[in-house]
Amino acid sequence: MPDKIKFTVDGKECQAEAGMTIYEAAKANGIYIPVLCHYEGLKPVGSCRICSVRVNGRWMAACTQPVTPGMVIENASPDVEEYRKAIIEMLFVEGNHFCPACEKSGNCELQALAYRYQILVPQFPYLFPKKDIEAFPKFLLEHNRCVQCQRCIRAIQAPDGKKVFAMKHRSGRVRINVDRKLAARLSDEEAQKAMDICPVGAILRKEVGFRIPIGRRKYDRRPIGSEIEEKK
Amino acid sequence: MSRKLTIEPVTRVEGHGKVTIRLDDHGKVAQARFHVVEFRGFERFVQGRPYWEIPVLVQRLCGICPVSHHLAGAKAMDIIVGVPPEKLTPTADKLRRLMHYGQMLQSHALHFFHLASPDLLFGFDADPAVRNIIGVARTHKEIAVKGVLMRKFGQEIIKVTAGKKIHGTGAIPGGVNKSLSPEERDFFLKSPAPFNIDTMIDWAQEAIQLFKKLHAENRAVLDSFAHFPSNHLSLVRKDGALDFYHGVLRAVDAEGRKILNDVDYQDYLDYIGEEVRNYSYMKFPYLKKLGKEKGWYRVGPIARLNTCDFIPSPRAQKEFEEYKAYTGGKPNNMTLHSHWARLIEALHAAEVIKELLNDKDITGDNLVKKGRKKHEGVGLIEAPRGTLFHHYRINDDDQVTMANLIVSTTNNNQAYNEAVRLVAEEYISGKPEITEGMLNRVEVAIRAYDPCLSCATHALGQMPLEVELYDSSGQLVDRKRK
């Protein structure tokens, strides 16, 4: 059995298997590093940067960067947390996120992160972009809430491996594009998977909204990250 | 010199409205109007939203009786998913009723104890610093505590059925998303006094006794204040019983003659029209059969007890019989008797809550049904303040394309104007000096209908009462603040 890699997170001595990312290694040691674009089982892309940590003085994305021996990782230092909070706030002001009537409320990772970071009013001005809703046979794509995490792109594929979701445009105009023909062939289960994998309320399965009562939603009882931190 | 009096905002009501009274050169009332100066625009911005979001989205119209909008929206969506209200599972139907009757109890308690009782207990001319719920708590502690706890009880009923006391998610198209656990049910049935349903029923009955005592002491004013004939509209159960959740439309005139009867509310547009006037954001609905001039009507407690034939719970029915006997079985057109009617309804709500809590269906697990989808649906409910209309159309992509809401307060629009005019003519016309008490009488008349102006248009506002005096050229000559 190969030797374990030794590193520190906020001064705490940690060990992990070789080949793990910083995010996975921290998790194995009961330390939560917030993620949004990353999803267990999907290839990490490091696009949202919420998992940013400072390693030996340099910023890195914890979901993509492999852990190496001797790394000195800063995860909970005030400026790292402020940096993440700013990213979350930017995601809010760049979209139109109205939690009160959103079906994903209580199950939404963006909302849960906002609660964790105690965001009351964003420090940036709201942009109120003009975005729309696109309808497909099994689901609706609510562009107002999309944070371009690309989870749907990576997770949902046709039987021949073709991607159902893709990105189009660049920079501020970037948005998720859907292959209508492939989307029309999605089963109910695949549409449900797309909705479940979306961290926000951008992918909505048709006709089955609000089935989970308040009190039984994922983050009603425990804040995001607590399932990792409770293993300490 | 002619003058213009402005009461803005009207206090101890939900939302933001104002009253203007124009006096002629002799100080006589030339014109009295109730304005709703808020604008919200829900009908427009629900367009494009998926239909299953509607019950959760539209309830944000209001924080006082959001359950009404939640359920009216859900009832419209029931039609759209092909499950008319009669076809819901017994568990879904009874849980929605429980939620709604819990709301009736809390909203009626709030209105009577918190908003209206200061006028009735202290008098219309009492010092405004005392004439409020804090004043009631200081001098009539027992009454205030009962009011607060009755409201809390209703709110707790809403919480177990909708998930939250305000803005929950219990009703979904075709059913509900949760039922009650035996523990949740027993909390209301078996908690030690006072927080159990038997105590609430007793307290609701005591509140009626309180009103009757105040009425006996001040009969002339309570009977004559803003007493005017009108038509009355509400839902009634098919057999004519009082029903807050579902039924058919019935309208009667001031003498009790039926104008509408057994009307399926899916066809409401054939019977109800809406007029727009240039001084208010609130529309003026009317019965098409009688036209714009004569077709206006009242809704709410007073209207419901005028349209229904009986109340299907024993203690409320007994009170109803006494109430009806007071007007010889004819419709009651006395504005301040709406408090009496409201308290009888609160008693009925408490009795129904007990009946539902003892029904095994509320702990059932058959929650949702689905039928053949339609593109249009209407949902009506008797909200605490009166009949509430929700009407939606959707497209093939399940997105809302049209919404029309006629809220309870809108239905009463002409009644407010009528009440304001009568009170202004009786108490302000020709008087050499305008006192705060006179202006409060105008508010008392509006308050009796428990208007919810935020529902009617926009958001809550909290500003001091301000009265402005203008000369005939429109120059401001005096301003008083409360």
TrEMBL record, chain A:
Pfam families xrefs: Fer2_4 (PF13510), Fer4_Nqo3 (PF22117), NADH-G_4Fe-4S_3 (PF10588)
Entries under Gene3D superfamilies matching the protein: 3.10.20.740, 3.30.70.20
Any one GO CC term of the record: membrane
CDD domains registered for this protein in UniProt: fer2 (cd00207)
Domain 2Fe-2S ferredoxin-type: 3-79
Main location: membrane
One function term, GO molecular function aspect: NADH dehydrogenase (ubiquinone) activity
Co-factor(s): [2Fe-2S] cluster; [4Fe-4S] cluster
Tagged with keyword Iron-sulfur: yes
Domain of life (superkingdom): Bacteria
PROSITE patterns in alphabetical order: 2FE2S_FER_2 (PS51085), 4FE4S_HC3 (PS51839), COMPLEX1_75K_2 (PS00642)
Localization, UniProt: Membrane
Family: Belongs to the complex I 75 kDa subunit family.
Protein name (database record): Group 3d [NiFe] NAD-reducing hydrogenase subunit HoxU
Organism in which the protein naturally occurs: Candidatus Saccharicenans subterraneus
Automatic annotation (TrEMBL), chain B:
Residues bound to Fe cation: C65, C455
Pfam families: NiFeSe_Hases (PF00374)
Amino acids binding Ni(2+): C65, C452
A GO molecular-function annotation: ferredoxin hydrogenase activity
PROSITE patterns on file: NI_HGENASE_L_1, NI_HGENASE_L_2
Cross-referenced SUPFAM superfamilies: HydB/Nqo4-like
Annotated Mg(2+) binding sites: E43, C62, L405, H458
Keyword line: Homeobox, Iron, Magnesium, Metal-binding, Nickel, Oxidoreductase
Cofactor entry: Ni(2+); Fe cation
Similarity comment: family membership: Belongs to the [NiFe]/[NiFeSe] hydrogenase large subunit family.
PANTHER family (alphabetical): COENZYME F420 HYDROGENASE, SUBUNIT ALPHA (PTHR43600), F420-NON-REDUCING HYDROGENASE VHU SUBUNIT A (PTHR43600:SF2)
Designated name of the protein: Group 3d [NiFe] NAD-reducing hydrogenase subunit HoxH
